[in-house]
Structure formats: structure tokens, C-alpha cells
Amino acid sequence: MGAPLIGARVERKEDYRFLTGAGQYTDDVDLPRQAYAVFVRSPHAHAVIKKINSAKAKKSPGFVAIYTGEDFAAAKLGGLPCGWLITDVNGQPMKEPPHPCLAQGKVRYVGDQVAIVVAETSEQARDAAGLVEVDYEVLPAVVDGSRARAKGAPQLHEIAPDNTCYVWAIGDKAVTDAAFAKAAHVTKLEFINNRLVPNAMEPRVAIGSYSRSDDNYTLYVASQNPHVERLLMTAFVMGLPEHKVRVVAGDVGGGFGSKIYLYAEDVAVTWTSKQINRPVKWTSDRSEAFLTDAHGRDHHTVAEMAMDKDGKFLGMRVKTTANLGAYLSTFASCVPTILYATLLAGQYKTPVIHCEVTAVFTNTTPVDAYRGAGRPEATYVVERLVETAAREMKIDPAEIRRRNFITEFPYQTPVALQYDIGNYNATMDAVQKLADVSGYASRKKASEAKGRLRGLGYAAYIEACGIAPSAVAGALGARAGLFEAGEVRVHPTGSVTVFTGSHSHGQGHETTFAQVVADRLGMPIENVDIVHGDTSKILFGMGTYGSRSIAVGGTAIVKALDKVIAKGRKIAAHLMEAAESDVEYDRGVYTVKGTDKKKMFGEVAFAAYVPHNYPHDKLEPGLNENAFYDPANFTFPAGSYVCEVEVDPETGVVKVEKFSAVDDFGNIINPMIVEGQVHGGLTQGIGQALTEGARYDATGQLTTGSFMDYCIPRATDVPFYQVDTRVTACTHNPLGVKGCGEAGAIGAPAALMNAITDALGVKDMPMPASPQAVWTALKNKK
Amino acid sequence: MAVKVSLKVNGKSVSVEVEERTLLVTVIRENLRLTGTHVGCDTAQCGACTVSMNGKAVKSCSILAMQAEGADVMTIEGVAKADGTLHAMQAAFKEHHGLQCGFCTPGMVMNAIDFAKSHPNPSEQEIREALEGNLCRCTGYHNIVKAIGAGAKAMAAGK
Q1: What integer pLDDT is reported at residue A443 of this predicted model?
Q2: Is B43's Cβ below 8 Å from some Cβ in A?
Q3: How far is Cα A299 from Cα A465, in angstroms, rounded to an integer?
């Protein structure tokens, strides 16, 4: 038995292959007789397709096939489904316009798929696609969510009048209005939560492969959730039985939400592979990724907080318009509702909250969950309001938070969630020390002496992770369960292979999950391998998103492990001729209470597979168990962030001088990996606040369609971070874990914008705070 | 029109028939099946395709195969020792958790090795500036910067 592995900074098992070029990403897969697909995409944001002429393309060298929307309609391929039904304020279901894999008569955003062209090589496919002539009748477009319902706005879908998907609300409006009526102070802000492009470094890839001999399909795809992909594609789009379709998501180069969804290309290559009886490979280039990977955020919000004279929060009113883009992406509908408005209590005892969300269609790329998904938008609303209120009421921003922190648990918020545990004063105390807030005044003076402006901003975020109790999710409109599955396969000589329905695309599950298993079994981590990402190997899985993997997927593994250990106890009792109730287990060793008798886990495993001396009358041979785990509640990671910026008033350049983060993720399996997740999340959050933002022109052209004009943070844009954790263990899962994947992206934008507005002395300014925007804000102030 | 290009890759002489428009990265990935070199963008911004050409880190998406005629190219697959032992820079990335999804990693390592040759004890600022042409979406660069600092020192110490 070695040192404990849970809580240790173990170097990652997956790193060797990534560092030596041996990773197997989907584009690294090539199949015999493979042909290459390129999609003809709409260059217009809104147009009627009058005619498609493919005569020239068909004569192009290496041409194999072309299919259009007409072919897909004739084959009765369904549209892409939405996985979450939102019921509107009138009790009516949301409007779900058809979302065809290839456009049917009309295109609704730049990049919309019009045809799939297949050729012998990728270059030839590109050449042939370029020769397809599409005759469009261009229609006026609407791109701005807040204008989608304006009188005379272009209409996208017949079944969605006023481009409205739903108007949804949570909370008691009358009671909230009454709270505002007796307020001593009201703080109001109106802002846009800017649209983001996820930009995982690996672009999407899909390879469809049909086998005539056994009538099976295999889809290799860069996906965060291969089983969900299979379920959606087979049952809802292609009408295939699931056992005929295998989905493989090997190494995946980042996801951040963008690889959760079932995309049209995945269906198109799978279907086409049967038509031409050859594997079909499609690799997105970055320009396509900008246009077609689901975007994130894009809210227009008016928010108000009511306070008494001491800064105690009395109520909150929020009205948001969420731009969903041209079609409903897989989980688009739940992001600005269930994952957003339910988080508006934040860390505070705000007694009444009312939030109304209007979700609209526009001629833009579909919007869905991107790292944080609704929770960054909620945190931005709450934490910008709180900081602004503190400034207006001349109360220290940390103090106003402390006056309102929830301190008793469990706590039922007015917006449906019940927080099981937390200690918000502990993370606030820790971050104030870590950030040396007491030394801030002298740093500000030093900046001023250089002619620079310095600002400090807080954000105290909360998120709901470990998604989700299926019954709760179902009651809220989810059309799928949200459990997770795990299998622990013990081999005859005691080593272990673990199969998990979670999917790692950078999170390090091969290490973290192995730490949990090896720790419980008292064996070296080298004896445990984690397998994920292949529906033919894994019994089932809901995949990785919403910081759910350790809390839900990890717990499923622990439940399977419990069964393994319990069966081992029976075997050990037999081997040691003891009563099962007298056998104790600790990290790989079975002992008999009050004796020196013991059996190692490896001996028990061997006995299970070489069952010569074995209780055959009571037990089956073998040692292999699986478990499905459906969580009892969400988990509630929370933390406090402090950001300090220095602004050059001459140029408007903002420098993030210090960023301190103290998070409570519950118990931690591998602190090194957790810190890495926080660093990455913070950087995406800083990206949203400082450098990123998708822009469309009035005709619906994405003017930020490459890394040349959409700026994801570079190494020079960010500082070394100061990160730490405090622990309140989650009360309802055996590991006491909460999840850490999204926190940084949730808390950082508010902290940074609070710091920038503090430095500039302005109430608000839009994200991203580019040099031009900052310079303009300063100029307008004078 | 097909053209023949001969070059050395990871110490081995190779000849390939390619189109005139074929990029070096395509030769590496598709002709030679060395898939550790990745393509992350189409505007020469991300650096995932970085390889060493004649001892200098270059973006292989921005070089035509024909320009590599006679060149000595090293890809990520050629960096570790023949027995599989990691190069000091690779080891530093592992020790400092300088990678998550691993997609940008080969380009990061190839660029870092070239940088470290001329910067045996780099400052934080020098490292960050050297990463101007390499994008990472996972790590926030924090641990990459630490890894490169440690890797450069280890390389200078002859490890």
C-alpha cells in the first residue's frame, strides 16, 4: 500500500502520448478507401435557394458524389433535434422550427450547409465544391437579438412569429415589484453579454464509415459525448437502431461545450458513407469552425437590484433577450433559462428574484452552451450589480457581499435551487489575503505616479454543476436522463481497466479517475487504465460538460468499485474461512477483525478468475462490476476572485496586473489538474472581457471569422495567476466533490470588468474592453 | 502537376510526389503519416503545425512542400530519444502540467526547443513574447510559461 493518491499532484498518464505526437485525434484516423467531403455553405445570412447546378462540379477531377437538401428530404432524414423543451409563460411549448442537415429551400445564416461534395482527395473535394453553382435570392437579415422582435424585422421561420422561440420567466413578479417599492436604493444596469466563439484548438472532424457486410455504421467524431451523439443521430435523425451504430471519440483537442452537439456534418458523412459504400471524412478548417461551431453567450440584459439603507439586498429584477441564432442547437434552449436564471441568487440571501427571458432567432450561427453556459451570464449580472451598488452606496464591495452572504445550509433560493453547502466568507477571506487587498492603496499610488489608472474588482460566483438529477432535469424539460455510467473490470492478476461514460478532452480523466480507483484498491496508479470515448466499449454515457465528470462520472466509478470490493469481501471471507461480517477492507487489504489473517486484493481477484477454492454455491466467478449513478442534487462550486488592472489612459490598453482566485470545489483529487482547469477558465473569462467578441455586419457576415480578427488570449495578454482553494465537501456524493472545469470562465469577466470600471471611474462599459473601447469610455467621461 | 520532393524527416531521407500547391504540413501528416503535427487554423496564427526545419522552428502550414526540398525537418515524433526517454523540454511540460488537451502541445514544444537554444535562462516576459505565434485554449499559458522556463534551464544544463 503506497501513499494516498487522492489529493496528490500526480503527473498525467496521458501526457506521454500527447508530448510525443502519438495522440490519436479524429483527423489522425484514416480508413482504407476513404473519400473526402467538403460542404457547400451559404455565403448569405438569409436567402432562398432558387437552383443548385452541380454539372461543372461533377466533371471536376476526382469527383465522387454530391448530395443536396432535396436528396436528404427524399431519404426522409430528419432534422437536428433540440434536447430540452422550454415551456413559455403561457404554458405553451417553445417554437421548434425544422433544423435540416442540408438546407431545404432556404438558408438562414452564413455557413448554413447547402450540399455535401465528395471526392478522392480533400483538395479535389474543395475544387469540386467551388464549382457548385447555387442561385440565391438574397433576403434581408436580422442579426441583433434585441431587434429580432422589432416591427418589420425579417422573419426566419414560419412557425416562430416575431422570431420568438419562447418568453419564459421564473420567480414571483408581484412580490419582487413590491420589494423594489420599499427599497432605499436601486442599482440598474443594461448591458450585452458578448457573443463568443469557442475555438477549441482542434477543429471538428467526422468520418462516417458504413459496412455493407454487417449493415453497421461507425462514426469517428470529435465529440464530448459519443453516446448522446449516437442516441440523437440514430433515434431522431436517421431512424436507425442504436446497436447498428458505433460512435468513437478518441483524443479530442478541447471542447468547451462546442463538441457536445449533434452537428449536420456528422449526420451527412454517416449517411453519405452508405450511399457511396466508402468511408467519408470531413475535417473542418478554422474558418468553417468560426461560422459553424455553436457560439456562446449573446444576451442583452436589463438588471436591477433593490437594497435597504444598509445595503441589504431586497430583490432583483432581470429582463434578458437571448439570441439563439438561426436554429435551435442541441441544448440551446436550456442555457439562457435553466442554466442562467436559476443562478441569479448568487452567493446571496436576496429574498425575491424575478427574471424574464425572451429567446429569439436571428440570421447568425446557432448559439449553445460554451464553458460556463448561462452561469457566466448570471454571474455577470449579479456581480456587476453588486459591485456597482457598493460604489453607489459607498460601501466597501467586499463588505456589501459579506452583509448578504448565505451562511446557513442547506439554503433554498427563490429561483428553484437548493444549495447543499458552502462557506463564502472563507473564500472571500482567503482571496483578500492572497490578493493583498490591504496593500492595494499603495499600488494604486504607484500606478498614478506613472500616469496610469489602477482598478480592483471582485467577483463572488456560484455555479450549479454535477448535472443533474434526471427527475429534476426532466421536470424542467430535459428530454434525456443525466446520469453517468462506469464499469470496473478487475483482471485475473489484479490490474484494473475502468470504463467511463465521461469523456476527457483535456481534463485529465485518465489520471484523476485512476487516482480514485488506485487509491481505493491500494495499488500503484500504473495498474489502472481508464477507457472512454467508444460506444462499443463503454456500456453507456452521458458525456462531459457542465463540470460534471468527477461528481457524476467519478461517482459512478466509485459505485462500481464499491460492488467490486463487496464481492471481494465475500471471496476473502471464504478464503480466510471467516464470517463476511468479520472481514474488514482498507485500500487493497482484507483482514479478519481481531486476527492477523489477511488477503490482498490481488489474491482475491485471482481467486475470482481461477476459482478452485471458491464459494460457487453463493457467487459467480469473475470480478467485473458496473454502476449507473443519478445524482441527488446539483453540486455548487463557489469562490471569490479579485482582479487588479492597470490602464494606460493614452492608449486605452488594459493590463491584468494580478488575478487571484480562491475556489471551493469540495474535495480535490489532483490539485495540479484543478489549478490547470482554473488557469484555463480564467483565461477564457479574461478573453471574454478583454479581447473576444463575435461581430456581424448588418447583412449577417461574420466580420470576426479568423484568428486574425477574433482575438483569443495570447500568452502576453494574461499574467501568472494566484490560485488557491478552500474546502466544504459536497454532501451528497461519496467523494465530496463538486467540479472545477468552468469556474474560471464564470467568475473572471465580472471581476475584470469591475476592476476596469473602477480604474476608469465609469459606471459601466461594454465587453470586450478593447483599447479602443476603453479609450472611448475615458474620452466620453471627460 | 505532380512534383517530386526529397527531404530528410526525423533523420530519414524521404521522397514524395505531391502537387505544386501541397503544403509541407500535408506531406508530414498525409504522405508520411506523422500525425503529431497538427493543423489548428488556416491563417498561420495558431502554431500547432510548428516543426523544426534546418534547425529553426517554422509553421509547416506556411511552407510549400517544394520549398522544403533538401531540408532537414524534425517533427514532434523525432524529439524524444530513440529509447523513448522524453527530451528535457517534453519532460518539463509533463512535470509542470503544461498541456491539457494536447492539441497545441507538439507545436508548443517544437517552438520552445528552438527558443531555449538561444535563451538558456529566459525571463517570464521573454517566454510570453516567444509564444506570440502559438495559441493554447486550455492552459491559460500559466503552466506552459513555467514549463518552458524549466525546460530551457534543463536544456542548458545538458539534461
Answers
A1: 98
A2: yes
A3: 21
Does this model's pTM top 0.95?
Answer: yes
pLDDT tens sequence across A555-577: 999 999 999 999 999 999 999 99
- Using a CB-CB cut-off of 8 Å, the residues of chain B touching A254 are 100-101, 103, 137-138
**CATH level 3 topology of A31-139+201-254+259-292:** Aldehyde Oxidoreductase; domain 3 (3.90.1170)
A766 DSSP assignment: P
Say whether A201 and B106 touch across the interface (CB within 8 A). no
Instruction: Report DSSP state, residue B62.
Output: G
CATH number for region A299-468+633-781: 3.30.365.10
Locate the domains of chain A by residue range.
15-20+483-629, 31-139+201-254+259-292, 299-468+633-781
From the list B46, B102, B139, the residue facing A18 with the nearest CB is B102
- Chosen from A20, A507, A723 to mutate, greatest number of chain B CBs within 10 A: A20
Residue A88 in contact with partner chain B when CB distance is under 8 A = no
Distance to chain A for B51, nearest Cα, Å: 12
Count Cβ atoms below 10 Å from residue A111 Cβ, excluding itself: 24
pLDDT in tens, A355-391: 999 999 999 999 999 999 999 999 999 999 999 999 9
Nearest CA in chain B to A255: B101
Q: Domain extents for chain B?
A: 2-78, 88-156
Per DSSP, the residues of B50-113 read EEEETTEEEEGGGSBGGGGTT-EEE-GGGTS-TTSPPPHHHHHHHHTT--SS-SSHHHHHHHHH
The fold of the B88-156 domain, in CATH, is DNA polymerase; domain 1 (1.10.150)
Q: Do A720 and B142 touch (CB under 8 A)?
A: yes
DSSP code for B57: E
The CATH homologous superfamily for domain B2-78 is Beta-grasp domain (3.10.20.30)
**CA–CA separation, A700 and A43 (whole Å):** 10
Tens-place pLDDT, residues B76-100 = 999 999 999 999 999 999 999 999 9
Nearest-angstrom CA–CA distance, B99 and B139: 7
Is the model's pLDDT at B159 over the cut of 90?
A: no
Contact B132 A28 (CB under 8 A): no
Q: How far apart are CA A270 and CA A245, in angstroms?
A: 10
A15-20+483-629: which CATH topology? Aldehyde Oxidoreductase; domain 4 (3.30.365)
